[in-house]
Amino acid sequence: MAGNDWINSYLEAILDVGPGIDEAKSSLLLRERGRFSPTRYFVEEVITGFDETDFHRTWLRAQATRSPQERNTRLENMCWRIWNLARQKKQLEGEEAQRKNKWRLERERGRSEAVADMSEDLSEGEKGDIVSDLSSHGETNKARLPRISSVETMEAWASQQKGKKLYIVLISLHGLIRGENMELGRDSDTGGQVKYVVELARALGSMPGVYCVDLLTRQVSSPEVDWSYGEPTEMLPPRNSEGLMDEMGESSGAYIVRVPFGPKDKYIQKELLWPYIPEFVDGALNHIIQMSKVLGEQIGNGHPVWPVAIHGHYADAGRDKLVQLLRQGRLSRDEINSTYKIMRRIEAEELSLDASEIVITSTRQEIEEQWRLYDGFDPILERKLRARIKRNVNCYGRFMPRMVVIPPGMEFHHIIPHDGDMDAELEPDEDGKSPDPPIWTEIMRFFSNPRKPMILALARPDPKKNLTTLVKAFGECRPLRELANLTLIMGSRDNIDEMSGPNASVLLSILKLIDKYDLYGQVAYPKHHKQSDVPDIYCLAAKTKGVFINPAFIEPFGLTLIEAAAHGLPIVATKNGGPVDIDRVLDNSILVDPHDQQAIADALLKLVADKHLWAKCRANGLKNIHLFSWPEHCKTYLSKIASCKPRKPRWMQNKNNSSDDESSESDSPSDSLRDIHDISLNLKFSFDGSKAVIRENIDGSLDSGDQRSKIENAMQTWSKGMAKNAQKSGSTTEKGDQKFPALRKRKHIFVITVDSDGSSGFPETVRKIFEVLETERTEGSVGFILATSLNITEIRAFLEFEGLKPTDFDSFICNSGGDLYYSSLHSEDSPFVVDLYYHSHIEYRWGGEGLRKTLVRWAASITDKKGEKEEHIVVEDEETSADYCYSFKVQKPGVIPPVREVRKLMRIQALRCNVIYCQNGSKINVVPVLASRSQALRYLYLRWGMDLSKMVVFVGESGDTDYEGLLGGIHKSVVLGGVCSSASSLHANRSYPLADVICNDSPNIVRTSQGCSSSDLRAQMEELGLLKG
């Protein structure tokens, strides 16, 4: 571990002064050590995984103390702290073992229940515990990454893509992203992923059949970063390519699109971006809508062209990172969450598993050691579900995303491997100057003999990159030092004191090791290099017949290994992670245990000393390297996307285009979106108000022809009534507006999402808002939406009791987002109209009856024992349930498990849903994973063109467990002081605090005073610029 060189010295000092310490006060560690080795104990049992920085400072102070008594006191204190650290480590290990055992039992129980629900006997293909189809390329090494055997093979594939004009959206929010001169290593957020997503976008934009690629990221207009990061768009021109890429056909190309969100003049780290993600979602949605219209005019015959895929990219997996940080013991779980917002990240990753069709990984290691840690992915259950899907057997609403291994690509056309060596004399150019790249001179100035083979390591000075072990291995192996030089490219730096703590610590440790082993003249560590210098660095190492090494403790993939192999360098790499997969294909590496210093030295010495082995590894790497080319990566990528069922707004589908009606064959366990018969707007009237939806059969047909006839007649009557009403009022509306009551005409939309906490404040709040906006209501310039956990029957009863009319609201978001209704102008007969297109949208991944049975079984298990009697606390509420909302009554809100536990239980059984505790915990609504009140508002924006920036959302001080989604985004929010404050108890057991995801200082959020008087409410809306003073 970095910075441990002082351990031996201070332990030896402890032993030296040991006899001088008063026996009565001597530490337990010293007094009872016997044949015990403090040095070995400390290094192997305590320091491994613990932060010793504070000890180091204490030891330095003790070393500088002249008074023997004070020095002894300090050392004695350190001994007790060492013992305490050991105890902490044992405690953490015990807690981790308990967590793992609990997780394993929960996983096995959930899997057995899921299998039991799927009543059909398992076939042989469903048995076993191997992740099927982990790789996109087959089972054998060579089959897993099929090589492009010839240009003709690729051209044959390209010819199949002709006529396709795909639009693809990539998302990568953190770090600084631009097309050229990327500042890789500038900070922890601007690393290899930045380069990967840029090159992926560029490569996809050059592929046949791809018309446009947008890479969405954050716009940063800050004086602390370059001005280029503030440009709204940046084109990514294709790299010079041979053959196929030169004839890619009609294409709009690839672009970086920077969406403004968060502080406009500040560059912030990814952990602080969470409160602003909804703002990005709104901005990205707006961009995609506009692009769909533009592309529709260009290539869609006037019909919108929607993205064929939206691909999100993000940093290290949260659960794996949490495990690693806990093992280190430097921070407690609460401190980790506070620093890295790790629980919010984990929940976001679980949500991605809920909604994703495909998860693309670089290696098997990501699946086996990272994704299987999540509640939402179980390799064994995934295998069983996939086998059932292939046999066309019912999965009872269960879904598991498909894991696909596609290694990152690389550009090879510009790489010319060097066959020469440093013994060859380089002739100067016409000006008499050396033709060597400048970075060569910068590196070789460190060496006393620059002609020796170069061992090259290229990584940030991060503890997990394990560079100190590499330096120790080099320094302690005399034959290796005599045969080779060591080059460490550790990012760029100006001043070590200005570097982050861990990076600075690693760098200082390396400098101390260089001094300790007297490696001057044998180790190079230049301060600066540009991204464009990296190919020249590889070339220099290859020219000296050197070796590339990646000694990281864990390497998720190892793109530098691909780059090094492309330049003709043999490789020594860690055996943990991606390098294992890479070596199976390239066969040019020696894999080592990164903790084994001697093994690292032996592997390096073997490659440097054995020229035949060096030449063999070099030749293998060059022969197989094109398996990792960008064209091959994109070919596999696009083929996997094509296997997914397309999803797009149903009301915008081009019915004249038969290709839109064709569903591509998909092997995912989802039935995606059902075809729903189009009845004008695909809206249904609620005649009795008691049921949200007239149920459909599995094939999508209505229960009876009479009902369909009634609905069609009602629709015609409603449309005539709208036209008649418009003529009476003298208003002029476009033909499209006649299909919808009012939303398109409103200047502002006011959304009332105040939740009920058992008090009588909700009706008063509605009346108060209406009173403040009475003038605007009369003019018709504003509209209202009621978003609530109530169903449509409860809403109708509420309106009648309060003397309100359905037409006082333009829309009703009911059942916590499970249903969407509009008020009908023909309200005497049919006051509410349900939007079936909304149902077709949220139906995605909905578990249906299989989910309901599992929820009922869970509810029956929640009991409160009183002596020998058990009382059921959660009971199914069939009366208020609907097709897309299963409701449950809660008898004792304080006794039920936290909402995160219910979500976890459903995910373990591969059931995708959104669980919401509402009405102050007295009710539970379970809706589809894509359904919520905030998502329903975005749906209305997408369908009817409502301007989100002119939308105002009224919320209480707290609310249902979907409360956080209502406060983010570009809309305005008004928090009503003193309203629904008691519902905060629902958020007491959250996995992450609300402060992590809500920006309290946002200019879009205002708060009224306690009591929320009408004058105060109007003043706040005037402050937002919504009303005139």
UniProtKB/TrEMBL annotation:
Q: Which region ranges are annotated with the description Disordered?
A: 105-138, 649-672
* GO MF term list: sucrose-phosphate synthase activity
State the source organism's domain of life.
Eukaryota
For this protein, the record's CDD domains field holds: HAD_SPS
Regions of biased composition (Basic and acidic residues) lie at 105-114
Boundaries of each Glycosyl transferase family domain copy?
A: 448-621
Q: Which GO terms describe its biological process?
A: sucrose biosynthetic process
**Keywords for the protein's UniProt record, in alphabetical order:** Glycosyltransferase, Transferase
Q: Which reaction does it catalyse?
A: beta-D-fructose 6-phosphate + UDP-alpha-D-glucose = sucrose 6(F)-phosphate + UDP + H(+)
Please state every residue range assigned to the domain named Sucrose phosphatase-like.
761-977
Q: Which proteins does it associate with, and in what oligomeric form?
A: Homodimer or homotetramer.
Protein's name in the database: Sucrose-phosphate synthase
